[in-house]
Design goal:
- The structure is a homotetramer.
- Chain A has about 375 residues and is mainly alpha-helical.
- Chain A has one domain: Fumarase C, Chain A, domain 2, CATH 1.20.200.
- The first copy, chain A, is about 60% helix and about 5% strand.
- Chain A is built from 15 helices and four strands.
- A two-stranded antiparallel ribbon of chain A has the order 1-2. A two-stranded antiparallel sheet of chain A has the order 3-4.
- In chain A, helix 12 packs antiparallel against helix 14 and helix 13 runs antiparallel to helix 14.
- The longest helix of chain A is centred in the middle third of the chain and has 38 residues.
- At the A-B interface, helix 1, helix 3, helix 5, helix 6 and helix 11 of A face helix 1, helix 3, helix 5, helix 6 and helix 11 of B.
């Protein structure tokens, strides 16, 4: 029996499962990535003459997520502790007796899971960077339309000195660019092949050449030293996604604060959204609120990933490696969802220069 | 369209979705808890003569999770930002025109969501405490069978002085008892009723009496001051579940360390589990590993909940309240799953007194 | 050479080292607590006839922090990894040859360090609870003076419905009471005595009786099972202090938000404080800001403590135990400093009912 | 009165205050960095003809940490909430009436504090990268001497397949290189100048040119958009230092695990260190233990910094900015201390090929 009985078993999916990431981090997406890694390994080994081309072709044909029972693999992962172990007998059966011996040749499950993880992260990084890029374009439009509107700067919650709305949009643009750049850069984790001992000797003399081809086929950088027990890659991904989430959380907070009834300089204008169960007159900035709520998940998940990265035993961690997966998937999803909600909020944003002017003039008369 | 297309959309469900908690924290369970809170409110108001008994009866009959479209409610929660807003029109329609006015009377959505949260936590607390209690019974059996086996104590990784296996089982028993006690105690969060301003005046003169009856019907303590913007309850729950997870993580680590091939004093004995993709001779303590991996999720989630608890604006938080839900559901699930895996590990545990004796004698000869 | 060359080597001492905690968590305070634990052990053993009364008297006389070189002990702790190891030869020398054998009899350093930790936590808990209690009295005064002032409730940053300032003060009172109660309750960690193996057998037949007397002399509960490798006590302390910090952070945020120039319903009135380097007209709520800044340190420190509590190896942790100390001392200091700053902020608080009324009437005319 | 009465007021200084970082993050170092930023600002403005060269010279002469009362500045920071506010009147007095008007011209305190922070981080980054580089050289020596020693690989705590000690040293070298690179790259945070509103207009037409010169004088990159309220720089620093700490924690754990008496393949060989209060025969790997304990502080501090980065209000945060300082200083110190302890551990490391061979042969005979 699958652990959850309902297709929408996460009651708070609206907060952490919006945008492109859920599709890229589903069971299906992960199993597909595992299959891509197995296929890339066989192809790389064929390139180097380690396995016959026909074997690599047979493996490539078998590495099709449509041909495996994703739900069963996810469930049986409990027995061996990762997604590769229940996949291998199925894959060998699909490949057939002649070439079954070429499947997973020289590899250990961590070679494949780590490469699949890098693929998933890479795809999510590009997808979320694109959402952030779209948001930056919306902000550029806000800046073009309203950037010259005079308003009061607020520091420590107090009225400081006059500025314009461009100070806000410049800050948002800068943050979105930094966040997208971090995701794009850090979401290209190097992949390696270590085999059961991590030293790669199970891949024979062609080890380094196979690693290079394996990485090239996956579109990722190669590392000659397999990182089964050296998790700086995990830490780098964690840091970049944490950075992106903090940028999003901050912009969401700016929207919430400028949308306060006592300030009223922006509002989320969306028919049907932002209502209240008891106060129909309210216009809550629900997209910015959701962006903040999602983004606030990130720092704790980053801490989990950093702890896991530093807690692994010798050549392969007994728990700390496994602990990376839910935290990482959660971080990708929460940050991606936060990015999507921020995009929605910015798209809904109505700027009120008259209110800005009124607040500014009230501020000036106090001097 | 639901955010995820597959019934097992969490590829790492085996780590964080085992045991009794997934069923108690599903969309269905949360919507059911929301409905229970609405029914309890109407019943409490009927008890105090605020609404007619017939209205409370009609509401009770409507508050049946079988009668609402859980998936639609979860999806539409995105519009208003919580589960109650999309539920109310459905509930009023089910109740019918005559008594629709008695639904949610005086309440704001946070009254209901917070009470539903307390119900969910309470049920999870009891269920996970029961799993821990069962584990304690397994440990008691290990202690009875093998507690007098001499072994070497290990401090800072070094051989210290001789002891017996009872030192290990006593420590585990003590931890499990503390963890279960923390869950039982802290998972009874007080419930209150504040209404739209949080001061309860929307409930009229009967406010305090209604709160008492509301809480009694839900089987939880009452708080006269609604805690929409005072989140010590969230922090208390977080602390208790974090404590339980840390106890589990530690016991899981003990198993992993004693099961090292270099130590070999315990093993997980389970046909079919613990295999390796490349090394069939290995017997990995996969249940303890999974317990650790799940439990390692907790500290970061606790930090998220504490940050959220301290970051809410005035009478209701614009994001920090919403941020509690995924972190809390995640904490309940990860800790519950860790408890279940630890139970599995302890149930599988084979203790090897001969190896203990051999390690001890090797230790003694070094003096 | 001492690691820091200056008496005020923490440039941000104003944020995390205010209030009563620095004095209670200094090197001197910790070494004094270690000495108290050694004295209590000898006295408990004398009570049970394990050591002669004269030995306990000699040890009590030697266990005077004025008689040891605190700075040298702190520095030499680096050699053995804890504060007890460099203290013992000094203590034995002070006691003299006749009774030196009765010093630390049967104990291991963790027995003493853990007891000293419990003493330090207990004292800090009482001291910070007292600061919170004083704050509650200030809030009660604000409620008495201004509680009936009408104001608008603000939910999700939006004007909700009218309420009075009592909603704010009731929330603060409730939070402060919960925080103080948590500190008082959880800061009484049980103490035990395990000896080198943790099983207590080094204390002989009187083990349990000595533990009871030891705990009674320290004014703390006793645990029959020493908790060298069972850290639920650490987790419980972490949770309670995290709860207190989250309450403080929230009240500090309320002050900041109500003190916004755009709201202006409260202000910190303090000659000389709250100035700006560039804007002399500003009146920043610097005490509330400092309270928030200090309190925001807590969730991360709690996560560190929970991770440490769950990461310790077997009978004594190789790093995770040691990791508790800076995180715990940091948590006590940050939370205590946050409490002190909040006290200052509340003491400075000027409430402006006229501004509340003006904001309320502006809110009403929008309906 | 300074908050702490003793020069070594941190009882756990041995864990978090070793190595080069304490000196680079002391009160004196921070105040010196603030003075450097003020001097660089005046010089940059002189370069652009905004202030007379004589003014810049006078300011440069005054910006000497020997000429100010560091302890008083640190103490008075409590009044205004940062280190710049109490410094300015002192600096203006030192500069003299003629040029006092050129001090801090156009700037707000955050311009200066943020630049000083970048300076401190930059220096710490280089210093800790150097420690890591030295450690890498030690590891290279171990690899040269003992890398070909056969040993058993251990995955999930179980014996896997034969490898050599080079697998361990290659992993350590790779991690140390990644950590040093991260610190070097990410510790060059861009500096900007925003003035009281953050938009830089207080610096007049020369704003961008002054920013470029200001940054060049500080040896750091420039950002045209001041980042008072855009804290991706903080998040980037946090991520890089968290990465470095996780690498250190992992290597420390490897040492602890290989040094277990049950494994015995490495040991810390250091006369006088690693003793026990109760067990003189023990040889605890106290440097690796201390490295782990220090490094375990990092993930929680990173989470605090990410939360702070995402929680700041509008143009300047009311608490979240201030919260960065203790967390950042703590992260620099803990990570730097962990690096220093790891260096000590690696320098002490004795490798035992005979024990490796014995463990390996025991492993082989089980097949």
């Amino acid at each position: 029996m699958s652990p959850s009985s309902s297709p929408s078993d996460d009651p708070f999916a609206f907060l952490t499962l919006t945008g492109p990431v859920p599709r890229l981090t589903s069971s299906r997406a992960w199993v597909a990535a595992v299959l891509e890694a197995e296929a890339a390994l066989a192809a790389a080994q064929a390139d180097e003459g380690v396995v016959p081309p026909a074997a690599a072709d047979a493996i490539a044909a078998a590495c099709d997520v449509e041909r495996v029972d994703v739900a069963a693999i996810v469930e049986e992962a409990a027995l061996g502790g990762n997604l590769v172990i229940p996949l291998l007998p199925r894959l060998r059966a699909l490949v057939g007796d002649e070439h079954a011996g070429a499947v997973h040749l020289g590899a250990t499950s961590q070679d494949i899971v780590d490469a699949a993880t890098a693929l998933v992260v890479h795809r999510c990084g590009d997808a979320v960077a694109a959402v952030l890029g779209d948001s930056a374009r919306i902000v550029a439009g806000l800046a073009a339309d309203r950037g010259d509107a005079p308003m009061i700067a607020r520091t420590l919650g107090q009225h400081a000195v006059p500025t314009t709305f461009a100070t806000v949009t410049d800050r948002w643009s800068d943050g979105l660019a930094e966040a997208a750049a971090a995701l794009t850069t850090a979401s290209r984790s190097p992949v390696g092949l270590g085999g059961p001992s991590g030293d790669g000797r199970s891949f024979g003399a062609a080890h380094h050449a196979v690693v290079e081809r394996f990485a090239a086929r996956l579109g990722l950088p190669a590392t000659p030293v397999a990182r089964h027990g050296q998790r700086s890659g995990t830490a780098a991904v964690a840091g970049a996604w944490g950075l992106a989430a903090s940028v999003i959380a901050k912009i969401g907070l700016d929207v919430v604060l400028l949308a306060q009834d006592d300030v009223g300089e922006v509002a989320e204008a969306a028919p049907g959204a932002g209502g209240s169960s008891s106060m129909p007159h309210k216009r809550n900035p629900v997209a910015a609120i959701s962006a903040r709520a999602a983004a606030m998940q990130a720092p704790g998940l980053v801490a989990t990933l950093l702890h896991a990265a530093g807690s692994g035993e010798l050549e392969r961690a007994a728990g700390a490696w496994h602990a990376e997966w839910p935290a990482l998937n959660g971080l990708l999803r929460a940050t991606g969802s936060a990015a999507q909600w921020l995009h929605t909020s910015l798209g809904r944003l109505a700027v009120d220069p008259a209110r800005m002017a009124a607040n500014l003039s009230r501020s000036q008369e106090h001097r």
